[in-house]
Amino acid sequence: MVTPDFVVSFAAEGLKMAILISAPMLGFGLLVGLVISIFQAVTSIQEMTLTFIPKILAVMLSILIFFPWMIEMMLGYTANLILNIPMYIR
């Protein structure tokens, strides 16, 4: 039988996995954005499009670096879900 506690823990585990997988990309983007903002403040360059290309490159670089880890995490989570289907439908 599905209880509200089970549904909440199931949803919490999914959100935790999503946050964990997206954290490296968000962190790299945040770090590059902060560095560029400081550079713009120091040099008084207020070009709005200056931040886009470096952020995109940083996120792509973080995907390349962390891709094996991200795939491993997703495969483990999915395998755990599939293996526990009989327990979930009881």
TrEMBL record:
Pfam families: Bac_export_3
Residue spans crossing the bilayer: 17-40, 52-71
Membrane topology: Multi-pass membrane protein
Gene Ontology CC annotations of this record: bacterial-type flagellum basal body; plasma membrane
InterPro entries named in the record: Bac_export_3, FliQ
GO biological process: bacterial-type flagellum assembly; protein secretion
Protein name in UniProt: Flagellar biosynthetic protein FliQ
Organism of derivation: hydrothermal vent metagenome
